[in-house]
User: Fold these one by one.
Assistant:
Number 1:
Amino acid sequence: YETKTALRPDLTTKTYTVHVKENRRLTPLTYDRNIFHIEFDLGPSGLKYEIGEALGIHAENDELQVEEFIRFYKLDPEEVVEVPSREDPSVLENRTVWQALMQNVDIFGRPPKRFYEALAEFADDASEKHELQALGGPEGANEFKRRAEVDTVTYADVLLDFPSAHPSFHDIVRIVNPMKRREYSIASCQKVTPNSVALMIVVVGWVDPKGRDRFGQATRFLNKLRVGALVTVSVKPSVMKLPAKSTQPLIMAGLGTGLAPFRAFVQHRAWEKAQGKEIGSVLLYMGSRHQREEYCYGEEWEAYQDAGVITLLGRAFSRDQPQKIYIQDRMRQTMGDIIQAYLKEEGAFYLCGPTWPVPDVTNVLEDAIARDAKSLGKKTDPHKEIERLKDQLRYVLEVY
């Protein structure tokens, strides 16, 4: 009958099973930011990815937290229930309560207003019902904001706070959002590592007002994975694409884990050079707080520079000296190189990382455009020129 084996063919997102090949911390154990490199062996999965794409991680909830919730909520972990698939909520699947809480139901995620509104229907206590209705409506806007942003409460916390509202698990599944995959920029080039895919991740963690350690669900899941562990992943296309010609320069600015896609870019350019192709200049600007703790992949960058792949390495460690030095400062100090690579040689500029440096970095590029036009005796509007470069995919931002 020409049947084929497929992993979850009923879902719209194509998923693959891969296993952990390496999981190593890049920052010192004593440092408050845990940035780590995780690499997956693709095995026989058939997963293919392009430069600049993102890997979707289909993470699981923390086992101890799930056990605690099952005890507190008096659930039978073996009971079979129907739950919406996390990839396509219109597809229902049968899971045990344990499986549903581990892989489907975002019980430790942040609840929206509509959850409070829905939960109010189940409250037997009049004051709890009123408070839940208020939190779900306009009158409780300030309190809702405080709970969401200061207390960082989860669905599970709310169920604990309002004991008279005790929906059945079947109802919980209906009113709590399904877990979503988390996407991370791929930090490797498949032409260089055909059988693996790498990510660069920072663990998201904070302490809430009650003194409890809180963590981002996916980064915690990834950080705890041991070599050999199986993970479900998917691939997501991205705006971060290499220019059409290998001779076009790359100007890249990465802050923190924003360096991830640029590791793939540089690997690809090194591969092209090894094939005997002529490659354009590569300008890599990186920003973090301290060189000693956060110079991630530093030895790799320097090796690529020695090999003639990276032309310019602009390192901005903001807190290593009395005056703050940011990525835009390093760019401004090398304005001549940017004018040559970006404007004279028609390079492409990429910025990846948090949104805050976008105005300052764009300002440097606009100054470069104005200075170049002046030297040629031309009049130009730098802002309009940036818009034109954007349309040509020569000004690309991936910020979050």
Number 2:
Amino acid sequence: MKGPEVHLSISFVCLLYVLKLAVAVSNPNNNGNLVLPNKNSTSLNTSFQILPTSPSSSNLYWPLESQSAIPNPDTNNILVLPPNTSTLTTGQISCSGRLYGRNFRLASCLQIYELMSADRGVRTFGQRGTGAYEAPLPFRYLSADGLCAIDISHAAGVVSDSVAPGDLREAARVLINICVQGKPSEGGLMTRLGVNGGLALRVVRYKPSVTCGLPNSGPPWITCAHILDNMPADSQRRVFGPEGWQNTSVPLPLSYTTAQRRCGLVVDGTEPGDVSDATDWYKVWAAANAVNYMCVHGAKRGVSVGLGERGLLYVELKDVAQPDTVANASIAIS
């Protein structure tokens, strides 16, 4: 089965990864356990002034597993930032273990903070599929062990905004300092970021189900980043299944590749024969990000399993140029 080819543009957002790329290191048994660099919580300072937060249960937050826009916040609980930040003037913080996860591994979140760009040049961040932006949203940083994620998205009613990546890095540091290092350790959300206050950043727990392949089995990392920047990532429920089946909205097997035909992303069923299950593109995109950060960064192919309401779907990133390649690549991303 071969579907229509679609050619999409390369996003400048790759620079956000490349400026500070952290490579995962596997143990000698190659069992997927990743070794993180040692970090110390004293690297976070308390130079920010924050008013006490008391998030209301009536507030609406970006769902943990959804690309839905974040509603504009109330005017309470304002964080005042230092005067040297150019595009990050005020922000509202809410810590919530229920919404964003509990009992974080601090070293994992600090590793992402070190990975984030400190560039003070202003970049445009916008909802993917609505225009040409330097960074398509949603955008995710993930720790090498897959346990801590930093997500960037837009507020409700806002398609795009501009911000310096270095200011987002500072916002992440504040959330880690206040929420992750708080008692109890919780994830958190900061809204009203960017030149027009249209962006938001959150620190959340992620639970990967990823297995990495052998060393040097993976595709060039940059080619997979092109796919992740351009693939769908919305939260609409869809049925992934055989073409022609009733209710199937995404035919399987589905594959993405690049014009260079190196990185291939495959979505298919985990059981022999025809498989049908429901999920949304955001979860598929998040799983692909996990494979990219945990495996492809270390020059390994990888697979994430357990996707779908019945856990019958998987996502794989592999090198198309190597044996056992993508047989039915249906979408080419250039």
Number 3:
Amino acid sequence: MRLAHLALPNITSYKHASTLQEHLVSSLLRYKAFPAQFSTPPDPTIITAQFSPVYTCGRREVGSVSAKQQDYLRAGGEADFVEAMRGGQTTFHGPGQLVAYPVIDLKRHGISPRDYIRLLEKTVIKTCGAYGIKAFTTENPGVWTTQERKIAAVGVHLRRNVTSHGIGLNVNTDLWWFSRIVACGLEGKQTTTFEREGVHGNNVEEVGRSFVKNFASGVGIEDVYEITEHELS
């Protein structure tokens, strides 16, 4: 089995990445519903990207963020606000943060939803470790470098065991954006980055390749190949 890696270049919008993600999810769902129409199952794919500034809320908050709060989050037009179907609460995505969205059929790989979350967390921890950052999980969601500093958020959505959304790992993100919210609903906690942990000079694309390699290893896939969005059919 192979794993496709779609690395979106430069800074892209949340909406654009979501459209590509939905295409991949729909392809896997079509295969599950009508396998005879496919010669082979679609390969699992990971999208990696950096987003233009956007605040997203999780599915439990959909419809509950007031117009006044949304206007505040948009920061005078500097950021966007989107209601997402992932788990978790309000967080920020923007330049300097690796967003990784695996689209994979958990049933095909024999992975339970709970184990999938653990897989994402362990992949982040292994990726951080490759850059000399000791990261771990706590009783709170996400991945942390201390009990008070969170370096990555995790939020996923499942449809018929097909995954979407994933992780946001802060490499050199401007932490001012997080200071405007209670990130992921965790009062009194801080957000950190590679740079705040003393690791400088790494670009998001490089960290993204490391994450994809570690994810493939965690799933038991050896063959990772890169694709462009124009190759999606």
